[in-house]
Design brief:
6 helices, five-stranded mixed beta sheet, single chain, 12 strands, Diphtheria Toxin, domain 1, three-stranded antiparallel beta sheet, alpha+beta, 224 residues
Length: 224
């Protein structure tokens, strides 16, 4: 019965060699599946399995990590400096439960339920999916930038990823040279874009984060 149901479930396959991104606190390891204390959105409420949170792009990883409230259109540099970025290469295709689009109705939830501050619904759903479906995790949309897709990867799929690169999200203050233009506080970033002629100050938009995946990636970007 489960196999038949699984065959009809909305699924997403992430192909071999695709890059997945992660932004995380400097005290954590790149491959960190949580404390198993149900503090994050798709964590197992009973702590039986761990979850690694990833973005399908650097922008998605940034949005999920640093945009914590609906008013977070400005990001403090002090917060940026506390984070690192990692890129993973998919070694074997990943099969993910689709928790967006038609997947919401199929799994019996709404977009509002899985995006709300109370994690009871997504956590119980993650536990049910982990138990009932032979998938590697869940694909969902970022709460504060729903153009961006994110992945909650179950720890049983850890062997399907390879760490390709890891380093500080930004090496230097406000831009790649580490200089701070006159009149710009080094403690505040409006947007996330750094250019050779200094930072472009802007409120949050996906296009504001072009520099995040490129020259400012601590040890260099991976070749995937």
């Amino acid at each position: 019965m489960i196999a038949a149901t699984f065959g009809r479930a909305p699924l997403i396959q992430v192909a071999k060699s695709v890059r997945l991104d992660r932004v995380y606190g400097a005290a954590r390891a790149p491959r960190w599946y949580g404390r198993r204390d149900a503090t994050s959105r798709w964590d197992d409420p009973d702590g039986d399995f761990g979850v690694l949170y990833l973005g399908r792009s650097p922008v998605g990883a940034f949005a999920e990590t640093l945009l914590l409230t609906r008013t977070d259109r400005e990001v403090l540099w002090s917060r940026v400096r506390q984070n690192r970025q990692a890129a993973f290469k998919v070694l074997e295709p990943l099969q993910l439960a689709k928790l967006h689009g038609e997947g919401l109705a199929w799994f019996g939830v709404t977009a509002a339920q899985i995006a709300e501050a109370d994690y009871a619904v997504p956590q119980s759903l993650a536990r049910r999916i982990h138990a009932d479906f032979p998938v590697d995790g869940i694909q969902y949309r970022s709460r504060f930038d729903n153009d961006e897709l994110c992945v909650a990867l179950f720890d049983r799929a850890d062997g399907k990823l390879e760490l390709a690169a890891e380093g500080w999200a930004y090496r230097q203050g406000l831009d790649v040279r580490g200089s701070v233009p006159a009149g710009v506080s080094a403690d505040r970033l409006l947007g996330w874009r750094a250019k050779e002629n200094g930072p472009q100050l802007a409120t949050y938009s996906s296009g504001s984060f072009a520099g995040f995946a490129g020259a400012n990636f601590g040890r260099g970007t991976p070749s995937l």
